[in-house]
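User: Predict Sugar ABC transporter permease's structure from this.
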Amino acid sequence: MKLGKLLLHAGLLLGVMAMAMPLLWMALTSVKTFAESMQAPPTILPAAWQFANYGKVLQKTEFLRYFGNTLFVTVVKTAGQLLFCSLAAFAFATMRFPWKNSLFLLVLSVMMLPHQLALLPTFILMKQLGWLNTYQALIVPGLASGFGIFLLRQFFLSLPIEIGEAAKMDGASYPRIYWSLYLSLSKPGLISLSIFVIIASWNDFLNPLILTSSDKMRVLSLGVASFVGEFATDYPLMMAAACISVMPLILMFILLQRYFIQGIALTGVKS
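Assistant:
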């Protein structure tokens, strides 16, 4: 038994090291000189810690604007998903209407399609609406998702059905039941969905790349990629930019990791 636990912990330790090494290498490269970052064989620790690289990132690009764009888009998309996905999930979990199961299967089928498949139709639609290179193009297509509807529906189904029935007997309408009961009892599920949406929106690269073209509409992912030059890449500055962009997500995960794990578990709740 002790040997099994020892092997288990050794395996977990190796997994943690494998996951942490890219982040550690990114952080160490961000404080190296350009010459050190290009050495072969590579050095692990820098000879002189170049923390000024972080200041250069802010000087050479409008990185604060990229950060603001990313924050704005992420907040609005998260709020939209919480609203629209919870409304749809409430309907699928509590109401009876024709073709209910078929419509839910249609929602689930959207989750099976690769995201890249929707890029061209989304681009054409945004162009026809005149929304290219605007916040609408970055936000509107992500205001709802099949995964969000599925996740919240599973959570709503885990709530006692007697709650809604008792509210109906007291004369409460569906909007009142949704707002006062289901949302107030579903904070863990809503937080879990928020975490998933924030991570996906914060790290989104393809949509901003295709739907925007001006520097003022860039988000953090495009800002990091802008350090890739035609003939050379300034890896220390690129890694410094990557550290700045990933730090909010790391802090969020540290503070809300139990909700993140709970959100994964929610997908297995009764159907």
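The mean pLDDT is 88.
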